[in-house]
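re: ur question from yesterday

yeah so i grabbed the chain u mentioned. its 114 aa long if i counted rite. heres the sequnce exactly as i have it in my notes:
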Amino acid sequence: MKPNNIITILLLLLIVSCNDTPKKITSSTDYNVYLNADDDEMLQLTMEDYKFWEKKLEKEPSQFPYLIKAAASQSHLFSKTGRIELLIEAENKLIKANKATNYSKSTISKIFSS
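ran it thru and got these structure tokens back, copy pasting raw so excuse formatting
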């Protein structure tokens, strides 16, 4: 067989084989219900955690570990909602905690490790 004939046959096979359109196997509406449920549940748990630490802070505002825990909750809420004011509040709480510990890295590290 001549090389021109081989190339023509290969091109013909390529054109014929590419006519199939991909079939959709699933619909996103079938599984989005399950994906959103986890996010809503996580968001609710994080809100409860944040409220818990805020109540603790109201009772004992001098406790810097409570500031750190509340800041962590706010950071997590930011990652779920994208509301920038939560991240700014978390930063302010961490700054207060750093001032309360005179910027001692070991104290903050111990709290984050627990």
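noticed a couple things. The helical segments are 3-17, 28-59, 64-81, 84-100, 105-113. also DSSP finds five helices and no strands in the chain.
anyway ttyl
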